[in-house]
Amino acid sequence: MPDTALLVSAVDLAATLLAPLGTRWHHTIGVAHRAERVASTVRAADRDLLVAAAWLHDIGYAARDTGFHPVDGARHLSALGWPSRLVALVAHHSGARFTAQAQGLGHLMSAYPHEDSPVSDALAYADQTTDPEGGPVTLRGRLAEMLARHGSDSANARAHHLRGPYLHAVADRVEGRL
Ligand SMILES: [Fe+2]
Asked: Where is the HD domain (predicted)?
């Protein structure tokens, strides 16, 4: 069933929290639009959930708690009473579990069930084919930029041998469904 109210609330909360952050907001708008364009890869009943999660996936940057933005976003949404499936999608977006593990923060993820589905794939694909300024980018380009930005000693770099292949498999699945 479409959930227009969920989507409207997601845009509203994302704008409130992220618009003041500038670039992060432009990235979010780009991810949400990309999610709309790949929404045909998920069940009709899940499309609003997908796009709502795209709007909200990075709000952890504006609601700092642990310092790990996927979990911070999930905690914030959970405290506000958002649906648990959406909360878990935000916690796990774009292979966050691999980065959490590399940072010794794996235990923070255990509160959120890991969904491995066309919805989690489409969310990761939308995020990882949108650059930090909101423009389109290939997955390969996005990962290269991310590694350059975070540095070779970063948790992102340490997680890359697991997260990279996961994201490439995600991209193959999404493009196969389009
Ligand atoms: Fe993102």
From this structure: 24-127
Q: How far is the CA of 44 from the centre of ligand 1 (A)?
A: 23
106 contacts: CB under 8 Å, gap ≥ 6: 97, 100
For the domain spanning 4-177, the CATH number is: 1.10.3210
**Ligand 1 center–CA 31 separation, angstroms:** 7
Residues in the chain: 178
pLDDT of 147:
94
| 96 CA to centre of ligand 1 in angstroms | 11
Q: Delimit the domains of the chain by residue range.
A: 4-177
CA of 1 to the centre of ligand 1 (A): 26
Q: Which residues of the chain have pLDDT under 50?
A: none
Lookup: tokens for 178: 């389009």
Give the model's pLDDT for residue 3. 85
Q: What is the pLDDT of residue 101?
A: 97
Residues 6+ apart with CB under 8 A from 25: 14, 15, 18, 19
- pLDDT, residue 118, reads 98
Residue found by looking up tokens 């498999």 in the block: 169
